[in-house]
Queue: 3 jobs
Job 1
Amino acid sequence: MPLELNETTATLSDVVTVDEVEPLVAWLRATPKGKVNLRRCNHLHTGALQALLLFQPKISSAPANAFLAEQVLPLLAGSGGATSRPESEPP
Amino acid sequence: MNPLLAQFLAEAADLLTQVDEGLLQLERDPGDPELVNEVFRAAHTFKGSSGLFDFPELTRLTHAAEDLLDAVRGGRLNLDSGMTDDLLAAFDLIRGWLAHVTQHERLPASAGADAAVLITKLRGPLGGDATTPVAEKAPVVHVIAPPPEWLRHFDTEWLDETATWLTTTASTLRFARYAPDEGCFFRAEDPVHLISQVPALAKMAVVPPDEWPTPEGYDEYTCLIGFVLAARAAHGELDYLFRYVPDQVEVVELDGDAVRRFLNGEVAEPAPASAGEPEPAAAEAQDPALVHDAYALLTAAQSSLRTEGVGGARLASIAHSVSAAAAALGEITELADLNAEELTETVNRLLGSTPPPPPPPAPIERPVPEERIDRGRADDPGGQVGTKILKVDQEKVDHLMELVGELNVAKNGLTFLADSAEEEFGSRVLGRRIKDQYSGLHRIAEELQASVMDIRMLPLSVAFSRFPRLVRDLSRRLGKNIELVMEGEDTMADKDVIEALGDPLVHLVRNSLDHGIELPDERTAAGKPAQARITLSAVADGDAVVVEIADDGRGINPMKVKRKAYEKGLISEEELEAMGDAEAVELVFRAGFSTADQVSDLSGRGVGMDAVRASVEKLGGTVTMKSEFGTGSVTRLRLPLSMAVTQVMVVSVAGQRFGIPVDLVVETVRVPGGEIGRVLHQDVVVLRGEVVPVIDLARALQMPWTPDETADRRILIVSLQGQRVGLLVEQFHREVDVILKPMEGLLAYADEFSGTALLGDGLVLLVLNMKEVLGLAARAQ
């Protein structure tokens, strides 16, 4: 199961496909202060990345996957990403 | 612009629409062979036409599209939506190119690279014959492009480091922008996955949407973000990875210098968003105009501070303007509480730290690398292909013409109203004012009519265009060597005339080819050059257009024509004896006449020339023929420029008014009743030594009228087929321009009238068909 959702934390593991995007977005909507654990995530679908960019949840745990850690994690706010996105204020 | 190119662009716009519609329909109904054929034909036409110009990429791309469509048409391939996408993309790209061509008369610089990608895709389903385009595009892509503005999405610090590193190592990086379309998730595309596969990815950044939606309105299945990435992967690797989405990816190769140039603010289009980003470059890249203004402001403040006695409100206002100038120069200073001395010091400091700016006009225009523009335009779908040409249904123009006619009629009614205002109601002032109104209306109506007529005008080249081919084909078949010369193709005439001219012209040219022109041997024997010449020419002559078909063939033998006509019973023995050569030539227009010794499949069925005369006369024109035996013949068609408005002369008989086309009218005469003679039951009048038969129009039309014995007879002389005929009428009226409506319905049988027209006073004018009227008169006697 690539997606484990509980009250405060969403755990994304292995390959997050487009099928997981909808429940993830629903959870992010319902959980404004949720945290996302990406430790065992190996791939993040663009839709999921886009959702994380929009809702900007706190990333509680950095991914182990090299590509995600090096390239994707810096993009996600709250993890010290340098790219500024003035338009993407959290709601 | 080259007229050929202009025409190509105008046609291309139509073809593109056709292709788009066809492809979209095909997607819905993939099995329809007619649709495939239609799209194929459009692509084929495109390819053919593009070959005329120096657009090799266009030709190559359409060729690839055509090959794919050909395979589909031949049933070797089933069109799937991927192929449709590729085809649509190809034609979209072409649309972008043509918009560029419309403006610059050449393809955008990026055309080769863009085409290569699509060609590879289009050829894919056919078994990939992609080697040539790939080899060709190689030099095009590997240029170090000027820095694109989307570099701003990268971390500035990283860019700075990278620029230094690239400069130090004299190497390059491939930068790409990937803008997935909104619906890409539905096509199982995952941009992040694609990017994660890029070998030796150096950096990736997200291009956020212009505006993030609210969480409530967020559609998780719409892809809003794009990406920029930098990679050490080779071009080929990037091309391969992004082979399914080439139109969404832009790859440039940049060296350290280029990145540095970007950091220094040199981009093709200055990005408005960059001001808000914490880039050190942004602060330096100030608007030169602003700097200039600030500098001027500071200089002014300096000089006013030098004058003594500055204080109070004056000082505060200077302080205010100085702080505004300082802000423009990037320094935030709080000056409101300073006294004059401190303020002067600040101004001096600011002026000292700011170099005097160059004069403003120069720095505003930043040199924009040309290729950059090209690239931008290439994929701009909103461009205009070709000049704006409206295609309007002919019926609409005809309707407009009718309305103009009715406007004329309504307008003419005003003069009658003016008269009755004067006569019936005794108000001369009102009558004059109505007439003033009338003249204004008249001018507008005239102009309106002229412009509607102008819309209907076409050059004669439309009618001539088929002849080069016709002459070439026929001369081959007949073994004759013929040169076709066309003159005055740009003479304009009404489209009805042009269209109606087509068939008679074909008859005449065929006749010349078949009967007029001799075989080469025969020509050489007669001392003529072996190559014959047919000249088609058109000239405008007043309100008529004269079209001539001339050949230098054998001409018409008047003796042979006369004998033939006699044998066929077309002329009597007396006529045979008395007929002059010129008249004999005219015999070829008689029905049932054909001089060719044997009937060929080209012409010579004996319907040719009389059919020509009939159709030209129907247009209100005339045909004449001159021929010199042995040296050639000339057929001259004289046609009205426009058939929409006819000028008629109004006459009245037995109180009823009739119209007679002015073209036919020679003169109007009044002769005393006694001068009308009678020869063989026919009234005649002698005019300048010529005996002219006179027809009583009232009797011919069976209207009861007896001319007043004492008064002069009014006779209208008309010329019909070279013969003069007098018409006895009651009264002459003026000439009027009318819009002739054909006789329809219950009146259709009345051949003696060629149509009806409405006059300004509301009366219906019957326009006479003189030929039929003469026939009626002959029968009445």
Job 2
Amino acid sequence: MKNAFTIAGKELATYFVQPVAYVVMTVFMLLAGFFFFELLSYFQIVLQMYAAMQNPQVLEHMNLNQRVIEPLLHNMSIVLVILVPAVTMRSFAEEKRTGTYEFLLTAPVRTGEIVAGKFIAAAAFMLIMIGLAAIFPIILVVFGNPEAGVMVAGYLGLALLSLSFVAVGLFTSSVTQNQIIAAITCFGALLLLYVISWPAQTGSSGWVSDLLRYLSITDHFSQMVTGIIDTRDIVYFFSLIFVALFLTQRSVESARWR
Amino acid sequence: MIEVKHLTKHYGNFVAIRDVSFKAERGSILGFLGPNGAGKTTTMRIITGFMPATSGTVLVDGLDIFSQSLEARRKIGYLPESPPLYVDMRVEAYLRFVAKLRGVPRAKLEDALDHALQVCGLKDMRTRICGQLSKGYRQRVGLAQALIHDPPVLVLDEPTIGLDPRQIHEIRGLIKTLSGDRTVVLSTHILPEVSQICDKVVIVADGQVVLEEKLSEIPAGTTLEQVFLEAISKEGHAGGAEAEETLEEVGAGHA
């Protein structure tokens, strides 16, 4: 495990030395800030409208969690679908192209440790970024009266979602030496995971739609965004991470197969 | 000590090396010689455990590189064909990273780093960024990463390529002093390099070993060029004209 942390430390440092980390974080925070501002202004307009119409029943149902945080989390998850492939695309592909892969695979390090190291680094990066985005609920807590527990569940969902994305990104990067191919296939896989339950929403029932709903990252994420922490959703995210990392390890290890 | 036993490697239908066997003794420098495309790099990649052989095996200090891969890899310092540098890292950070992964204990890390920088002539380059180094210095950093953990076995793939004549002289001197009780295997297509620093020569052509001989056993009056040309032509791998060409190529190493 020591080797995994050595690799993770080096990888994380590289994210910040190459300006990748700063660019990704800036873009993410700018977009998230824009969504937050928009949602909040819209919330305020709607609030004033109903207040003017003297409609207390509706006013009672208006809350910051549903009107601001929930859509914000969904928007941020879509931004991650686009940004995560850009973060993970280089992890293995670049090493293969520059020849450092030859060093990594001939060093006395297990392939599992290599994969774990790269995952820890990318995961830490994502958590730092999502940590920065915690500024939005903090603003709401300071100036408003949202429900904290629901927001915590939502952010936990976003964190698990980002870690699953990272694991998928590592896998697509491990099968190619071309960073663009790594990014595009990762993007495709993530988007598919995002929309895979759409056929199930047309009202058809049966095991196929159940399966599609289970596979869909959105369905599990939405649960957590509404404040429900269900073990089934947690298990889903952890299984996705595990399967993707296992495939990555196999893919790296396959270089040693006869 | 390295024992290479009957290595064969196929890339699809292409046979890169066929039944390659040789032995590198402890405390000696083995020159792995052959024209371009003869299978030198493939052989070295198999010895270091980077890729598997289709058949055959390699013993590194008695450890099988396939079945006891981790232990065997611990004993090897490897300089690949192109130095495996992380271009965004500073020289010292890179070498620290390599040393940690190769299992240098924390207490000895700084000493190992200083020693590697010293012997490779990189003292003034420690804070430079790897990607901004010249070819010669990249090669030196590559050499430093291969020997930072003081390995009993050194595998160097064309260590003097891209260096200027003075650097070539220095690096050759360095490799000679390194041998001590280590096993060194270096590949090259430059004949004088072999006659200057190696104890033993293995010549490959078209993926097959055509000669394995101690330099001291080459009869007096015969030059390595003659031995080399004879070896690669008698197997029928190179005709007259081709041999001439090869001679010109290896002769270029004299300059």
Job 3
Amino acid sequence: MSDKRRPRPVLKIDRLAILYETRKGDVSAVRDVSFAIHRGEVLGLVGESGCGKSTVAFGIANFLDRNGKIVNGSILFQGQELRGRSKETLRHLRGNQMSMVYQDPLSALNPCLRIGKQMAETLIVHKNMKTGKAQAKCLEMLKRVYMPDPMTMLARYPHQLSGGQQQRVVIGMALLNNPALLITDEPTTALDVTVEAGVLDLISDLRTDFDTAILYISHNLGVIASVSDRVGVMYTGELVEQAPVNTIFATPLHPYTLALMECVPRLGESKDLSYLPPIRGRVPSPMNIPPGCVFEPRCDYARDICRVKHPQLRQIAEDHAIRCHLAERIASNGAKKLKKRTPAEQTITLETTYDTEEPILRADKLKTYYTQRSNSVLSLIGLGTKRHVKAVDDISFKLRRARTLGVVGESGCGKSTLAKTIVGLESPHDGEMEFLGLDIMKPVRNRGDALIRELQMIFQNPDSTLNPSFSVGHQIGRPLRRLRRISRHEARKEVNRLLEAVRLNGSYYNRVPRQLSGGEKQRVALARAVAAHPKLVLCDEPTSSLDVSVQAAILNLLLELQQEFEITMVFISHDLSVVRFFSDFVAVMYLGKVCEIGPAEAIYSPPYHPYTEALLSAVPIPDPLAKQKAIRLSGAVPSALDPPTGCRFHTRCPRLIGDICAEKEPPGADAGPDHKIYCHIPLTELRDVEPVVTLSED
Amino acid sequence: MLVRDYMTKHPMMVEPEMRVLDAQRAMGENDVRHLPVVKQGKRLAGLVSRGRLLIHPAKLESLNVWEISRYVSDLKLKDVMVPAQDVIVIDKMAPLEEAARIMVNNKVRCLPVVDEDGNIEGIITKADLLAQLMEMLGARRSGIRVTVRMPNADGEAARLMHAVGAKGWKIPAICGVPSPRKPDMWDAMIKVRDASRQELIAVIEGLENHEIVDLRET
């Protein structure tokens, strides 16, 4: 029987076009976007930044900036046209039937109102509810979003909550009025993977309970794969492909979708075996959109027709729409298999001879504490007891030449402090640290130029790394002049060579940072870091603020530079797939301690430390068919000011074995060559644990 | 089987100030027959059905054609809706049969589902109940559909189930009603899979006082 009742969609968007009026003329941000969302369905919208995802969301809720306007198309919400409605009607609608959750929960909450008051306000204003009753409803909702200890939460201020809790409050608030449509714009992007996994679980629970239609916007393919029923891929303001989630991940047909999926490292892939093909070029500015297919300049399949004729969105199979002239050809050639990448010529393998050499970086029982001033009177006269935030506590590792140590862990685990300590920006409290046999316990200002030259750092945010008032050439040239004593004339040549090495060219020499895109700025930062030919580069989340396509390019570049200059690297990231791809060794950190350290492939398969296991189970995997264990850590990382006794992880550990965890610090157990696990559970038991992630076969 | 699980959540809702003309068009375009009218958020203010939008000819008799068009275009939903106090509603925790009983007894085709404050939580219509009836009778699943008439006495239905169950056949649907116009008899409908027609007939004929009223394969 096929008489399926297909109810009317909650939201139906037809040929929507939005433009922004600017001084340089109208900029069309969204063109010809059509989709529908039904009750209890999640539509994922994915694409690089600047593709108009958020503009669509703002357009629906009519939250566009003053210069934004909807110029064409219709927005049918619950069967009624939203375009041209009065502000007042739209406000009512937003309060009662439509809700929004944005990326940064802290800016969505009023910092000077208690959570309880803030949540109740929605009910009191929109539903004329009595205060007492509204409070009771809020409490119920906080329980529904799995908020720990909801009663006390009501009396707290937003800043007293962790990021995940704040986002739970925002989601709870959004659902208080039982909306028919929930628009979520990158709701988990600012959160840790472990917290993100919890929020994603919550969203999928809620949509079945409340039958809410959800528009989920994200740039993260893994997240999209795990929450969506259908996926729309946006590029330069157009919807280029739309299909059910399993179809789009199994047989993506649009070259852009294909490229997007290929450039993210998948969990389990390493640099020895695969190569991340980046997407060349960048998203065109909406000011000059190519006349033909918008993706043509970056497309590997492009033909003459693509340059001339703008493709229309068309149905290629039932429920699979695509905007490409060559869809049939790509489909019949058998879309490239994404899952199995075979080692190609381009893969970068490192010489194994280094393994026998002496390590160039060695840390032994390294401790970095931040002193916390106490408020007592005694401390005023210097007699108070000092308290310490133990950001890095007793860490030992060795790193050989041209190898990469990946460092992972939730935020607040001391990853960045470790990097800053090595580079000398923080002074260690205790322990030993040697680099090329030299003691590097001194802070950077006491280090000689020769040492500074060997240690360089790349930061997360390229905007704040580069001085906005100096040209690119000047900034790259500075370490050359300061550290390598190269003459002005020679430096210019060298800078040009470096620019070439990071795939920029001489024309960038005189540009200033604001004329560059995020990816280009990061390239410049990279060029500057390697300019002085350092032996060790510390990368602190170098790709987190970048789009996946740019991330792929930067990672490839880092690998090439590493090979060319034989650079040793410490690579910090919260993205476990990227760390697996990039690193030879991985250290998993929790509250200043190392839980597990060892060769990358050993970390990602059993035996696991329970914390590693939990982290892996939270990684969003861009494959809807992959099976993943659901281990969710409760609560936030405890304060490092007063860390738990015994094993630091015991307060959140899902595999707690007894009092011993709370009393004794776990000894390191050798789980293989160079592989150490710090846990009380016997290794034989940890070995029997099933792998967290099972990728789909075929 | 509670109203909660079978109602339509987030139904289309309109405001009392909406023009009848617009409501008529919205109902046509969205293929709905009932529109809950809400004010102050989602508080039920009334209900409009297609019948309510018809204008009694007597009302128009005294008007000329220009006045008619003005009258029609000025007409608001609040003028024609069934006001909230006259709308029969139901709680979402009520069982499905209660919803059916209320609809049958009051001859209404739909019941708005409201919470204790009168906020709309959903709507349940005849179509929802029929859809559920269809599921109960196993319309989507294939098998041999057999109706057995038996005395209306304790243990009779159990005997039938026991006999069929003992064979290990799958039973995708099962339901029973008092026989039409025969108060002392009971009709049980079961759908059986993995059984052949002959085997099933043999099993049922082996039961005393059980008679096959109808047997077909679906």
